[in-house]
Amino acid sequence: MIEAQQLTKRYGAHTAVAGVTFRVEPGQVLGFLGPNGAGKTTTMRMLAGFLTPSSGCARICGLDVVNESLAARSKLGYLPEGAPSYGEMRVGEFLGFIADLRGVEGGRRRQRLDDVVARLDLAGVWSQTIDTLSKGFRRRVGLAQAIIDDPPVLVLDEPTDGLDPNQKHEVRALIHAMRDKTVIVSTHILEEVEAVCTRVVIINDGSIVADATPQSLIAQSRYTGAIGIRATHPVVVRDRLLRLAGVASVEAEPGGERVLALARPGIDLYAEVERTLREDQVEVQEISRERGRLDDVFRRLTRPGAGADPASADAPVVLP
Amino acid sequence: MLSVFRRELASYFVTPVAYVFIVIFLVLAGAFTFYLGALFERGQADLQPFFTFHPWLYLILVPALSMRLWAEERASGTIELLLTQPLSLGAAVLGKFLAAWTFTAIALALTASLWFTVAYLGEPDHGVILAGYLGSLLMAGAFLAIGSCLSAATRSQIIAFILTVVVCLLLLLAGLPLVLDLFRALGLPQPVIDSIASLSFLTHFGAIGKGVLDARDIVYFALMIAFWLYATVFVIERKKGD
After folding, report:
1. Which residues on chain A place their C-beta less than 8 Å from a C-beta of chain B?
2. Cβ A1 vs Cβ A24: under 8 Å
3. Integer Cα distance of B196 and A259 in angstroms
4. Which pTM does this prediction carry?
5. How far, in Å, CA of A32 to CA of B114, rounded?
6. Residue-wise pLDDT tens for chain A (320 aa)?
């Protein structure tokens, strides 16, 4: 379990993290989102015991990260941003070193090393120097050290940053396989959140602006319930659709022949749009339901000056 | 702490650092001893000329060894990895320091051939030579502790190196008129001047090198090491997040 209460980090006059409060239970994979510089890494560093909070507190499995730092750290596997490791060491030596630091000994040491090597497919690079590894392998070595003693809590700072799509997929599968633990994953890749997270916290300017399931966040998107129409004459379609009461606005997709009819909240437009266009004999190639877009919600919540008020996450979307 | 010590010591030997350092140390130590110190020409079976040059040898070589201790960890980000393990900061600082110290002890031990040489040529006072080695090792420890602290203060190894050389030089010279006259010119009272003089590495090392194992000199170096290692912990605590 991870608990953060009014967690705050100030650097002089600058407040990097301003009173962040959340709680992650075992079995939850929390996606920690926010623009660069929003305070994600600073928050994770405080959870991992690397930075001391200016005020507020955090607990890992009930252990305070400041007063019971060593005990808290032994419960937590941490992948720092950029997955740093000792480049001159061989993969096996490095993982053995971390295992020693974490007091993994005897038969369990062998067994844990075998386990992470199998999980992260590191057998082929076991005796290679870390400096000679590709970025993907280095990231995997970083993940391997985080889970070397099978800790109940994982804090992973951008585990898929800089990986190719195949490697991203593997890392997500790995996180998914560890969903019985308490996991925090920071990322700014939104598709990742939908793929692996059971919950999302969005942080902006050091404050939490949303804390919800990915589904409920997506439901806040203005594209939720929108209808996409591909037509030969998009302008004609647009004029017709604007007359419908349930249509909030109509957008043309950049460069395309598609237009999007955005629905007013709670209205299912599909049947109405389909009937109108058929009756008016407008030539259309395709009519489809749009999914809500997380990036749209993310942008709205984190645009400059979106404010630190968590209530603004629930405020009605102002449509053009 | 033992794991940090082992990893750190091993890391010296997987990179060329160890070999370059040892070779340069041995070549310079030999050159100073035989040419500047005129070991043979003196006609005395002792290692006085050898030890005399140690402070100056360490002045350049030890900072080169200590500069990477923490600066490298900070530059590569591994400091975050290390300090989020269930390991106290003090243990990490001590483990790294002891590894560097052990490494200099190895380099120093390799100069034992000089000892064998004078033992073969004459009948040296082995107690004095042993004391000289002990004093030299203690002084190297103090240099390393200073280097550890200044390495923690920056992520640039070059800056760590230069700062360490400057601080070590000041401490070496503290007992010399060159430095003391400067403080006198500033109008500082005599007790202050005396305490500055008593901080000098040369004074304390010189005493041990002559075979006088005074507890005060040993305590001086031990305190030096303890103080600078404590300062290392303090500096890392303050600056690790920058």
Report:
1. 45, 48-51, 70-71, 73-74, 76, 78, 80-82, 84-89, 93, 97-98, 100-103, 145
2. yes
3. 82
4. 0.85
5. 63
6. 999 999 999 988 899 999 999 999 999 999 999 888 889 999 999 999 999 999 999 999 999 999 999 999 999 999 999 899 999 999 999 999 999 999 998 899 999 999 999 988 899 999 999 999 988 889 999 999 999 999 999 999 999 887 888 888 888 888 988 888 999 999 878 888 888 899 999 999 899 998 988 888 888 888 888 888 888 888 888 888 888 888 888 888 777 678 888 888 777 888 888 888 888 888 888 888 888 888 888 888 888 765 444 444 444 333 33
User: How are beta strands A227-231 and A258-263 bridged, if at all?
Assistant: antiparallel
Tell me the ipTM for this assembly.
Answer: 0.86
d(CA A119, CA A141): 11
Q: Which residue of chain A comes nearest to B14, CA vs CA?
A: A88
Number of Cβ within a 10 Å radius of residue A296: 17
Dihedral sign of CA atoms A72, A73, A76, A80 in order: positive
Tokens of residue A8, six digits: 């705050």
Task: Report the half-sphere exposure of A180 (CA within 13 A, side-chain side).
Answer: 3
CA-wise closest residue to B73 among B208, B219, B239, B227:
B239
CA distance A42 to chain B (A): 9
Residue B118 to residue A68: CA distance in whole angstroms: 57
From B11's Cα to the closest Cα of chain A, the distance in A is 7
- Residue B143: CA atoms inside 13 Å, Cβ hemisphere, count? 33
